[in-house]
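SEQUENCE-TO-STRUCTURE ENTRY
===========================
What this section holds: a protein sequence and its matching fold, both as plain text.
Tokens: labelled as protein backbone structure tokens, with as many entries as the chain has residues.
Question of interest: how does this chain fold, as expressed in backbone structure tokens?
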Amino acid sequence: MYSLRLVVVQMQLLMVANATAHELALHKPGCPNKCGELDIPYPFGTKDGCFLSEEFFITCNNTHDDPPKPFWVHSNIPVTNINMGGRLQIQTLVSTACYNETASMIKNRSRNTSLMVGKSTISDTQNKFTVIGCDSYGYIRGKIGDKNYREGCISWCGNPDDVIEGSCSGSGCCQIDIPKGLKEIKVQARSINNHTDVWKFNPCSYAFVIEDSQFRFSSSNLSNMTERVPTAVDWAITGQGNCEKARRNKTSYACKQNSECYEPPANNSVRGYLCRCKDGYEGNPYLSCRDIDECKNRNNTCSKHADCDNIEGNYTCKCHKGYNGDGRKDGDGCMPNQSSTVITYKIVVGVGLSFVILLVFTSWFYFMFKKRRLIKLKEFFFQQNGGILLQQQLSKQSGSCDTTKIFGEKELKKATNNFDEKRIIGRGGFGTVYKGFLDDNNTVAIKKSKIVDKSQIEQFINEVTILLQINHRNVVKLLGCCLETEVPLLVYEYVTNGTLFDHIHKKDNTPTIPWETRLRIAAETAGVLSYLHSAAATPIIHRDVKSTNILLDDDFIAKVSDFGASKLVPMDETQLTTMVQGTLGYLDPEYLQNSKLTEKSDVYSFGVVLVELMTGKKVVSFARPEEERNLVKYFLFLLNEGCLFEILENGMVNDDNSEQIREVAELARRCLRVKGEERPTMKEVAMELEGLRRMHNVEENIE
């Protein structure tokens, strides 16, 4: 009898131990908890009865692979991580298009790049659509609900030295965000010129959707890219609505004992709900959560004169005999019941006062040291950025001190509310522009550069002083600069009416600006470029002429801006050899091919702006048919075919201006010639545009 009782007790203890193990397990009893090296927590599972619904079925391929590999049932591609906070990491295929030295395609992997995730969504906050290659573009297609989505980006470079390690800004690598709510996608990589000029170091174009935190671009990616990349998928318990609706259906409600329901966080785009253990509990909220013994694992705040007492979902602290209080380190703690002696109080007070005095003195010394160090750092930046040289040159210019200023960092921080993102009015390849309000109530635009070349500070100072001397009504005036920061800050006059790009690319079908105003803006812009090329003390090539760099005031007067990429041309030189910089679509093809920058490069870019003004269309757009994506090529084709008016903006042409528009189109054709030597100078362009305006005004007066 005694032996039988002993066996019963042992079996009961074993049952308790098994129950405890089941409470702590992240998978259902009797279900595999791993596939290879990957933990499979419920609601996910690898066989019938082990997962909540088909959305959470993981197949475990243990036939051919050693170790076994998990695959998600929706995409049939590998799973590498399951996060109980609503995140799934899978391995998706890279779309690849490779060419040989004869420009023939030898590899095209795009058919298997489709991805469908069922009721889950492809994370828009964790992933980026990425294209790699020096002669490449790629696009991503998908569906958001019943709507089709399509977008793409272009990656370009002339040689491996052009790319910047870790940067995906368009040179060798480009990235764009993906929208919220994508449930299926297909990516495709393509080449612009079949990798003809870059085949030796970059034979392939690559396109893929990748978890941003798992990718850093390297020049080695140009010749060697993995077959699969990690992609983040958002999941939740779907089909039952939010928490409030899900709780009403007791049979299908997924949150189990001692757990609670919560809505997916903002970075999870799935509609549904998730579960988590309540405070003081641990385990799998989709199975059960058990009480955490804070006293056993010492995860408590009981003071040294108190004992910890574990209770369901929490714990209490009980002071030892002779002490009273709540017993917590973060509360009153435990104080002795008997009163202390006067000597004890004096010692405590004395030690406390000494500590306070020491703390005050140490803090004062630290803040004084920090303030002095900050002053020294500002002085260092001021000298490093050529502040002394700039002051000397300004003092030599008569009247400069009345119109220009060297600003302090504190003044510009105050003007922009410490460079608040809400004050940003523009971003470019060379910096960010903020709207600022000075103490004298003047509104200014403050440009904060991204990078400054420390080896060319003297050239930078010389360029600033020349820009300060420019007194042209159609150039955004440079008011001054700040040299107390690591990179100089430039302060410009604030132009109120946005950019030319904003006005000519509005989505309605009527001209946003009448033709006469557009022609005047073109003439004013050409006059500025002519001035920079031929009238400035040292000729200046703007290098980034485009509609976003032409600002308009309330009267639609043009103001040319952004000289961040401009180059000074010594008097004895007609061209400069530089690394290619500029904006795709506006770049001079001759400059793009041989890296030799001339004044005719600005002429080509201005010709593109003329085409924009006449057509109202964006220079490059993947939303248009393939033959129309490059605006310049399509414009020249129609012009050669005698079909100019087919591409012009609706409602612009009338009987009075049709001939004038033809002449401007012919001028644009000459500006867009491939060989720079065959293009007119900016002075000739400005004179011709001004002549067309005057002739039109004379004809109107005669009528």
Remarks:
- The longest strand covers residues 135-144.
- Residues 342-384 form the longest helix (43 residues).
- Residues 87-234 form one domain.
- The chain has 14 helices and 37 strands.
